[in-house]
Design goal:
Strand content of chain B: 15-25%
Helix content of chain A: 25-40%
Largest sheet of chain B: 5 strands, mixed
Distance between the termini of chain A: 36 Å
Number of helices of chain B: 6
Low-confidence stretches of chain A: none
Number of helices of chain A: 2
CATH superfamily of the largest domain in chain B: ATP synthase, F1 complex, gamma subunit
Number of strands of chain B: 6
Low-confidence stretches of chain B: none
Strand order of the largest sheet of chain A: 1-2-4-5-6
Largest interface: A-B, 23 and 25 residues
CATH topology of the largest domain in chain B: Pyruvate Kinase, Chain: A, domain 1
CATH superfamily of the largest domain in chain A: F0F1 ATP synthase delta/epsilon subunit, N-terminal
Order of helices and strands of chain A: EEEEEEEHH
Shape of chain B: elongated
Shape of chain A: globular
Structural class of chain B: alpha/beta
CATH class of the largest domain in chain A: Mainly Beta
Oligomer: heterodimer
Number of domains of chain B: 2
CATH topology of the largest domain in chain A: ATP Synthase, domain 1
Mean pLDDT of chain B: 89
Radius of gyration of chain B: 29 Å
Distance between the termini of chain B: 34 Å
Chain lengths: ~140, ~290
Amino acid sequence: MATELTIQIVTPFGQIFTGEVASCSLPGVEGHFQVLPFHADLVSLLEIGPIKLQLKDNSEKWLASSGGYCEVKDNQLKVIVESAEFAEKIDLKRAQAALKRAQERLKSHDKNIDITRAKMALARALNRIKVAQLSQSLH
Amino acid sequence: MANLREIRKRISSVKSTQQITKAMKMVAAAKLRRAQENILAFRPYAYELRSLIADLSAKVEDQTQVPLMTRRPVKKVLLVVVTADRGLCGAFNSNIVRHAAERINDYPEAEVELFMVGRKGLEFFQHRHVTINGQKINFFNDLAFGDALDLSETILRIYQEQNFDRVEFIYNEFKSAIQQNVIVEQFLPFVPDEEAEKSKEQVDFIYEPDKISILNAVIPKHLHVQVWRILLESNAAEQGARMTAMENATDNAEEMIHDLTIYYNRTRQASITTEISEIVSGAEALKES
């Protein structure tokens, strides 16, 4: 069994990150949790929220992710999510536009609008903005 | 004998058609490459989801707690027919439409409704005696994962709210640029992969929350991926079919231009010969007098 924690982040658009990390914080449905080397085998659902990678050189990387699940086994962490963006790649303007759109949708009383979907879009936009701002304040 | 100007006109019109078909072929080839890249990129994601679901469904004894897996007697069927938005791609659309029409007859006892994906199929079935439950058209040009998500959620909603017992997809599978296969695939209720199930490991995972909730949350995601796969396959197949059709058209145009050019030259020579013989005989006549 490997002694290092390797992580794989997989989305429908391909594998966006793979490598060894010191630890990883994930937005689980039952609360945020951290995965360190030699974590017990686990399958957990993930919510829309930030993912934090602590790299081996102690630097941090943030990603905005929109729900999925993760699997830990033998120091292998697989994060399978519908989307994940590195903080520095997030287009803040687009995220803010998406936020505005979602808010307007929720405000209008049109019956054709799917409330759950609008709420999800809102949560995703908020998460992206939060992660982007967070990484900016760190640098 | 046709006059020369007409033949010239004909040749130039065939030439411009050939330019169009050539360009369409090139565009189709580029789009095909993009579609194939998309297919490759999403494969790892689909694989992970499939193996998790197979693993979980093998461990969950009571499958009645997973509504999307519950089988019922088939009384109401939804056929999702995936065609292209555009024509000029050989038998691509007509194959699907024919299969769909046949498939309806496979359910003599049940009530069958259609969901049309792609404009061409919709145009065909609009004027037939079938119930069209819904449609999604004019999106293949810039196909994105959002489209798959949208379609998948719509179909899940129809399945749950309108009491359908089965949903099937009919689409073209991409074999190669020259070959497409029509596939009829059961979409709902969800059937886990038999083969992946064999590889189930005896690892004691901690499940957070419990297995059934995870399964219920992950199956819709898996279905989104399936729809995305089907749309990508169909799109790749469409571009492949169009590429081949346009290549044939370009070759045919080439042949036509060749034949017409020969015909043009012959006609030109014939007229010159006639003219010469007219002049010569005229001169002869003058000499004699």
